[in-house]
Structures are given as structure tokens and as C-alpha cells.
């Protein structure tokens, strides 16, 4: 088996363990009449930004935490927090701040026992290997958190597909919102 086949096999194993009902529950919190904020650090942050971009294509009002034009979080907003370990200090801090302001927090993490998952209203578990996993906990041939990042990207894209079908948004309509 070549390296690319091995990577694809790992991703398939992780994604097949994600509870699709948890995606439906996450989707129930995402509505066009709510502002959505995404937050993540490093590559997880890049996956969160990709999700934000796709939500924009679907017609949602979406912001990336930390950008210069991001407004203040308010009650009834939704925060999607992405952290493989669930321990990224800024992500956990932002999630807790959002909860204090009355926002709903959705966590995408591999660690259901993490501070992020505990502070969230709901968590979608994406059980990919992350940077600190070693020994028996390391289930990937890839470096650092690559497996989580790749898998969460697919899961978030799956959530977007779910939303597009629920909301009746065609590919043509989404394309019309693309730069």
C-alpha cells in the first residue's frame, strides 16, 4: 500500500466513527437568522475558516474570531470551535467567553473529556490522532494532528452538504456567492 492509500484509509476509519446524528444536532443550531462565529488555532483554525467560507456560500452570516472585522459576540449567536485536543488555550477561552455572553457553543474535537467539550453545549467527536498523542494513543502514520485536521475538514464539509440539502441550496446558488 502506498502512502496516499494509507492516509485515505486512516481518514475513512476516523470519519466512519463520527456519529451522523451529532451532525444533525449541530445543524439544528445553525440557522440563517443566527450569526455564526468560527474559532480554531493552527491547522484546525484553517479548517474552521474553510467551514466559514462554505457557510458564506450557503448564505449564512459568518465570522472568523480574531479577524479585524469580526463583531462582538452576543446572546443567541453560535460559535463553532475546532480543536483536536480540545485544550487549545485561546479556543477554550473564546468558547467560555461566548457562553458567558449567552451564545451557543458547538465543539468539534477528538477529546470529549477536554475543557472545550465540557464548556460546549454539544460536541461532535472526530476521533483523529492529534499532536500530543504518543504510544498506543497514536493511531496514525501522519505527523502531528494531520489526521484530525483532514477528518474534521471532511466532517465540516459533510455538515455543509447536510445544511444545503435541508435549506434547498443548489450548487448553482452557492456558486453565485463565490468570489
Count of helix runs: 7
Order of helices and strands: HHEHEEHEHEHH
The percent range for strand residues is 5-15%
Q: Please give the order of strands in the largest beta sheet.
A: 2-1-3-4-5
- CATH C-level class: Alpha Beta
Portion of residues in helices?
40-55%
Cα-based radius of gyration, to the nearest Å:
16 Å
- Overall pLDDT metric: 94
Head-to-tail CA distance between termini: 39 Å
Dominant shape: globular
Number of domains: 1
Structural class determined from secondary elements: alpha/beta
Name of the CATH architecture: 3-Layer(aba) Sandwich
For CATH, the homologous superfamily is named as Glucose-6-phosphate isomerase like protein, domain 1
How many individual β-strands?
5
- Predict the CATH topology: Rossmann fold
Low-pLDDT stretches are none
Largest sheet: 5 strands, parallel
Written description of the protein model:
This protein is α/β, with parallel strands linked by helices and 179 residues long. Helices cover 46% and strands 14% of the residues. The chain contains seven helices and five strands; from the N terminus they run ααβαββαβαβαα. It is globular, with a radius of gyration of 16 Å. The mean pLDDT is 94. One of its GO terms (biological process) is carbohydrate derivative metabolic process. Belongs to the SIS family. PHI subfamily. This is 6-phospho-3-hexuloisomerase.
Amino acid at each position: 500500500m502506498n502512502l496516499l492509500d494509507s492516509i485515505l484509509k486512516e481518514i475513512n476509519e476516523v470519519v466512519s466513527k463520527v456519529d451522523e446524528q451529532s451532525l444533525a444536532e449541530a445543524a439544528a443550531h445553525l440557522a440563517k437568522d443566527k450569526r455564526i462565529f468560527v474559532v480554531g488555532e493552527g491547522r484546525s483554525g484553517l479548517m474552521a475558516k474553510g467551514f466559514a467560507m462554505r457557510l458564506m456560500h450557503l448564505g449564512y452570516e459568518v465570522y472568523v474570531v480574531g479577524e479585524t472585522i469580526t463583531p462582538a459576540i452576543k446572546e443567541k449567536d453560535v460559535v463553532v470551535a475546532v480543536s483536536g485536543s480540545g485544550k487549545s488555550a485561546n479556543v477554550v477561552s473564546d468558547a467560555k467567553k461566548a457562553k458567558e455572553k449567552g451564545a451557543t457553543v458547538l465543539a468539534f474535537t477528538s477529546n470529549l473529556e477536554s475543557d472545550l467539550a465540557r464548556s460546549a453545549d454539544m460536541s461532535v467527536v472526530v476521533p483523529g490522532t492529534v499532536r500530543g498523542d504518543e504510544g498506543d494513543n497514536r493511531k496514525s502514520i501522519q505527523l502531528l494532528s494531520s489526521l484530525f485536521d483532514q477528518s474534521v475538514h471532511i466532517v465540516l464539509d459533510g455538515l455543509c452538504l447536510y445544511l444545503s440539502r435541508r435549506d434547498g441550496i443548489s450548487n448553482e446558488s452557492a456558486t453565485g456567492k463565490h468570489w
